[in-house]
Specification:
single chain; 495 residues; four-stranded antiparallel β-sheet; 9% strand
Amino acid sequence: MNIFLDKMKALLGDEFDDFLKFYNSSGEHYRGLRVNTLKCSVEKLEKLLDFDLKSAPFCSESFYIPNEITSLGNNPLHHAGAFYIQEPSASSAVTMLDVQEGDYVLDLCAAPGGKSTQIAAKLNSKGFLWSNEIVKNRANILLSNIERMGIRNATVSNAYPEVLCDRLAGCFDKVLVDAPCSGEGMFRKDSTAESEWSDEHVKSCAERQLKILNSAKNALKDGGVMVYSTCTFAPEEDEGQVAAFLQRHPEFELADALGNVDYTFGSEGEANRTGGLVVGTGDLSELALGWATYNGDHMSMYGVNAGVPKTLVRHLVQYEADIAASAELRRVLLDILDTPVSPELLPAKDNGEIAQRTEDLVGPYELHDFYLYYVLRFGFGPAKIFRLARAAFAGREEYPDAVLYKWLRNFYWRFFAQQFKRSCLPDGPKVGSVTLSPRGDWRMPSDACAAATARICAVNFGTKRSAMLSSRDTLGSTPPNTYRYLSAVMTALQH
C-alpha cells in the first residue's frame, strides 16, 4: 500500500497527515440508513425505531445511526422496505442528479440498488426507472431490493452498457453512472477492497469507466443530465475521467451541481478568486491544425504559446539540455524530448507506454510546421510546397512521396476546417515571422471551405501519377487553374 499512500500524499499535500490519522484509525466507520418515502415518512420511521437518528447533509431522507446498533438488516422494518441501509455519503450522487417526478431515469451500474431505490423514491411512482447491472447474480440482488422497496415503475436488466444504451438511445432525461472503481474510499469498511488494490487495478478501472461513460451518453435525450460518481480518490478515475470525457465530447458541459460553485477550473472566475492569470497553452502548431478543444484556450486571458511552433519548442529544449548546469537536468530535458506528444486523455498501457500519440492521429509536426511556414510566410500553393517538401526531406525513409502527400492534404483540410477555433483567440505574442492570431497578422473567414482545398491538393508527382491518388483526385479531373487558386487565396487572406 506504499504506492497508494504516496499517491495520496501527493494529492492531499498538507492534509495528508489528517487523512493518515483516520486511515489508520481502528474506530468504527460512519453507518447510516435512508428512509424509503414510498412506504414510510421520516417522522413515522423515527417513532417506530428504538434508537435516535442524526440527519446527514447529503440527502434529506438520509441519517447516521449509532455505532452500537447491530444486525439492522434483521429489523422487521428493513424487511418491510421502510428503509435502506446505506452510508449517507452514497446518497449524494442521486441528490446531484436532481430527479423530478415524471423523469425517465437510467441507473446504468445499479447493483445492489441503493441509488436506484433512492431515484424511485424521488420519482414518487411517476415517470420511469431503468436499473441495469452487468453481473447476473448482482442483478438478482438488485431486483430483490427493487421489489422489497415497493417500486412499481421500474425495469431491471442484466445487459452490457454499450448494448443497452445503443438500443435505448435518446430515451432518458437523467442517467446515473455510479461506476465500478478501485474502491479507495472503502478501505476502512472493506478489507477486500484494500487487499485487491494495485496501481494496475486503478488503470484498468479507468479504462472500463471510460467505455461505460461513452456508452451512457447515447442514452441521454438532448439537454439531459448525466451524473458520474465513484467511491475512490484516484484522479485517473475521477477528475481525470471527467476531463477526458469532456474533451472527447464537446457537446457536453460541466454543470454547476450545487448552484453556487464555479466548476470551470481554469476559467476567469477561478482567476478572479485567486488573483491569478488564466494562460492558454495551445501552441502555433496546434492552432494551425485545430488540435485543441474549443472553449479551452479560447477562454484564457493570454495565449502565451500561440506564436511558437512545436519544432521550435523541441530546438529550445535541446539547447537547454546541451547547456544544462547538471547531469540530472540534462537527463530530464532529454527524457522530455524522447516522450511522444500526447493529449494524455487515456491512462498509459500496462507496460507504461503512452496510449495516445498525437502524431499518429494528425501527422508529424515537423511536416505540418514546414507546410505552415510556406503557406503563411510566402503564400505558396500546395504543388510548390510539395516540391519543396520533397527536396527538404529527401533521404528520409519515413517520408516517401505518399506520406508527404497524405499529410499535406490533411494539413490543408484541417487548416481550413478549424479556422473557427482561431477566430476567437485571446491576445498572444508573435514570436517568429508568422502568427495565426486574429489580433495580429491573420485574417480568415471562419466558414472557409475545406472541401474546395481538398480538391486543390491533387498533386502531380513528376512524370507519373501516384497510385495513392483516387480517380477524383487526379489532375485530369482538376481544372488547370486550381493550383494557382489556393496560392492567391492564401496571399489575399494575409492582407
